[in-house]
Design goal:
This protein has 116 residues and is mostly beta strands. It is 11% helix and 47% strand. Catalyzes the pyruvoyl-dependent decarboxylation of aspartate to produce beta-alanine.
């Protein structure tokens, strides 16, 4: 049996922008992607703390140490600059492997999205 478990989580980051006219995705500071073991193109779930919206998109790299968290394309309608969001990705693992798996959990400074 296989199950889905949390693989990566960036907990409580501030949205720095929303670009409706971009093709799609979420732009994430490359340092945050590295710390949380996310790769470009990976499917992510977004949870907006401010309005309760939940949706999926894919990650693209932003400039390293920029603090950038920008929702692009249609997802831009689900956030506002300044909203606090959680970014989560999942992995499918064998049941026994999942019991010992340890996810990459990142808790950045939500004022400027830096790693502390």
């Amino acid at each position: 049996m296989q199950i889905q478990v949390v693989k990566s989580k960036i907990h409580r980051v501030k949205v720095t922008g929303a670009d409706l006219n971009y093709i799609g995705s979420i732009t994430i500071d490359e340092a945050l992607m590295d710390a949380s073991n996310l790769i470009e193109g990976e499917k992510v779930s977004i949870v907006n703390i401010n309005n309760g919206e939940r949706f999926e998109t894919y990650a693209i790299k932003g400039a390293r140490n920029s603090g950038e968290i920008t929702l692009n394309g249609p997802a831009a309608r689900k956030v506002h600059a300044g909203d606090i969001i959680i970014i989560i990705s999942y992995a499918t693992l064998d049941f026994e492997e999942a019991k010992t798996f340890k996810p990459w959990l990142v808790f950045p400074n939500e004022v400027d999205n830096t790693l502390t």
